[in-house]
Amino acid sequence: MDLLLPHPGTGDLHPSPVPPGTGWPGDPSRPRTPRAAAPEDVIRLAGSARTLDQLDARVAVCQACPRLVAWRESVAETKRAAFADQPYWGRPAPGWGDPHPRALIVGLAPAAHGANRTGRIFTGDRSGDWLYAALHRAGLASQPTSVHAADGLQLHGVRITAPVHCAPPDNQPSTLEKATCAPWLDREITLVERDLESLLALGGIGWAQAIGAARRLGWTVPRPAPKFGHGAEATLITARGKEIRLVGCYHVSQQNTFTGRLTETMLDEVIARL
After folding, report:
1. Which of 87, 133, 149, 231 has the lowest tally of Cβ within 10 angstroms?
2. Maximum Cα–Cα distance for the chain, whole Å?
């Protein structure tokens, strides 16, 4: 029998990884949610998702990338010593936030002991500490911390997602894994496009994936392709003629925040432009 451990917020017992529909806070999936087992399944299931809730549910049970499935579940089983008394989510982390966002933040991928543990993107790690504190300072988050999926945090006018939804080894998804996950991002952008005014890309990969999604969706992208940089901005035009601002920001990784490459002031300045 799988070892059951208490969720740090609810106290409910769960195995690691957590099966869908078993009471994990914020879990959008159910046992019968259709699961992608190959890239062609991702294309089909993403394209047919009618709502964000349906999309998130399908993302959260995706099994299309064997290397990522094996890695995320291995991490969930072995755990980090500091979290050995907690269950790990161990599944893809879907986007989350305001269902009618004017800004969509695009990161990279879940952290092995962050979102892969908590089930909520940018939650339970130092990168999330920086991001949510900044969103709170800007009035876009109800509190400055994001500890676990039952902590009551709410976002206002903002949704956060990632071009890769599973924690990758060494934080480096492969080219194939990014391509396999891309239809999820494309559909997510389509579902929020009506309210969307801006995209905030965290890091060069987030920037490149946002531009790639725009092109796949038939949006007009400046040529030559705009280059990533902190504070860089480009105007994308949707297939319906709506202008969307793409804003670049250094990723809130420990490497950037510890070294001072990204400061709180720098982060606040780009978030103020959303």
Report:
1. 231
2. 57
